[in-house]
Model the fold of this input.
Amino acid sequence: MAIPLSPPERQSGSGWSAPRRRAFRKLLAAGLIGSSIEWYDFFLYGTAAALVFPKVFFPHSSALTGTLLAFSTFWAGFVARPIGGVLAGHLGDKYGRKPVVVACLATMGAATFLIGCLPSATTAGALAPILLVTLRFVQGLAAGGQWGGIVLLLTESAGPKRRGFAGTFGQTSVPVAVILSNLIFVAASGLMPDAAFLGWGWRIPFLLSVVMFGVVLYIQAKVEDTPEFRRLREEVSRHEDPVVRAPLARVLRSKGGTILLGCGLLSATNSLFYVSISGLLSYGTGTLKLERNALLAVVLLSSAAMLVAIPWSGYFSDKVGRRPLILIGGFGVAAWAFPYFWLVDTAVLPLIFVAVAVGFAFQCLTYGPIASFLGELFAPAVRYSGASLAYQLSAIIVSGGTPFLMTALIAKTGSTLPVAAYIAVMGLITFASAWFLPETNPAEVRADPHAVPGAHLHGSEVPRDAEKRPV
Done:
């Protein structure tokens, strides 16, 4: 039986009973593991799109065209993510965070497993890439919905002074997933000849996603929904502060500008991250003629440093506020964009490692606090919809197209300078977005042991289109 967590507004967490502390630690672990496997499934596709899919699903295309086609299927997942975020946000604000998270995790596991079962283009012709795009789209729907649910389960269940740190257990899943996907890909490709790997070995990392269903069963059986959402439902039953009938419409009307600025917050981290984990693999193996596994090792080692940097940035945002770290990180990505590619173009692996590691460090300063910051910008009744839409809009605008754009720009100009300029612009967009957004954890909130970050932005806001009956 799950142990309910008491409302975080009433205690910081240090006064929780031992069973409640254990319950919250289990929630943090479940959030980290579930989100890590989810992102493993999603990122695995990016590695395969750079190294395998051009040959398996587009074997009759030139090397450049095959890579562009593979990255276009990669983009399909990002096109789907805002749709998944909208659907999950609507359901999550009406019926709870937990059931939506469970559904998204199960859907991702099933879609990834089925990708590992797909026939190649040699066997099934044009049907093979069609099925690949379809399953990638389903992956995108699931990824679009799970992020908001996971981070809200974590932050809304944490004490008010630990929400920044708690949210990073969802964010830290990203480097965990990169490490897992790269390790398994390196192992699978290193233990067999290239012909065997291209023939069937690439399927193994996808088939391993079956373990997701164990996590789904655990969350379903052992994890409670968040105290904030449970309190909203109680207030509905008393006709006090009803659940919104149409949360997406409400948040678009009242917080449209915040959603756009929230989307801009992710520009720096999303662009440089996907350059590093996907675009760099294609460019490094194709143009620079570097060894595939050596590049994967560079990404893996750089990601390991993120395991410390992301939780630290979230923890520090509880102490100094969210915006200062995001501002520094956005400006850092902009300043590092050109040195990043100067180092990459040397084709010297230690220098490439420096390029990626420093870039990841600046990304962590923005990515760690964003889980709590985005949620705190929206009132609880529309929080899932607002935060998910902001996060996933960046996915379709920035994340999915970046590897494709990088490959196309380099092919067109023969230089990485346009890509560096693009990354610099993305960093400045993040800086500007954070500059114009309000601080959700200002000094007066940090000084009050019972004040909840972001609550001062919403006051006693009651949705005018709310449903006046119990849900």
